[in-house]
Amino acid sequence: MTNIEQLVDEIVKRIQPEITTNTVLVEGSGRHVHLDRATIDALFGEGYQLTKAKDLSQPGQYACKERITIASGKNSFQNVVILGPERQASQVEISATDATTLGLRVPVRESGDIAGTPGIVLINGERSVILKTGLIVAKRHIHMTEEDARRFKVTKGEIVQVKIDGYRPLIFDDVVIRVSDKFATTMHIDYDEANACGLKPGSRGEVLKKSGL
């Protein structure tokens, strides 16, 4: 082994524990919508198939080429991305700042937990749909594989803290663990939270078990 190879090997050994043992990739998520078949039909025409534009970090999830407008009685946001594939129920995810702009009181919920949530109007050109429920601020969460859950010694639904070091370091509390082998291990926060911690591409967070604090 050459001196250069030895140096590279030593550097890898030094950083590998930090990357693999107790940290997860952290991604910021902007406002977006998930649509069910009935809503797609109403907005784009019966049988319309959304067009994949870009794969996302979670397996099987993707951003679509199509964009729509979301509107309240007070304000609206245009060019909102649709995420595929289609869902069983339509859902719109925004930040707390977005909710203020729309003039709505929007609860923090896990994805899929939309009972009792406010509605929103979806618009595509001359077509529109009024959702009676489905508007949420997404609860900060970590998608985690079963293998990683065992390695981190956490369980589905457990609440942890995540420490993010950067030029605006902070510790996020009330982070829910979501476990499935259909996931890739990644933490998702919205843009309000991303701006609060100065999130950059490739940022990682240290998972802290609350029972150990």
Automatic annotation (TrEMBL):
Keywords of this entry: Acyltransferase, Metal-binding, Transferase, Zinc
One GO MF term: acyltransferase activity, transferring groups other than amino-acyl groups
Pathway(s): Polyol metabolism; 1,2-propanediol degradation
InterPro entries for this protein: PTAC
Broad class of enzyme this protein falls into: transferase
Signal peptide bounds: none
Catalytic activity, as annotated: propanoyl-CoA + phosphate = propanoyl phosphate + CoA
Entry superkingdom: Bacteria
Cofactor: Zn(2+)
GO terms of biological process kind: 1,2-propanediol catabolic process
EC number: 2.3.1.222
Family label: Belongs to the PduL family.
NCBIfam families: BMC_EutD_Gpos, PRK15070.1
Entry function: Involved in 1,2-propanediol (1,2-PD) degradation by catalyzing the conversion of propanoyl-CoA to propanoyl-phosphate.
Protein's name in the database: Phosphate propanoyltransferase
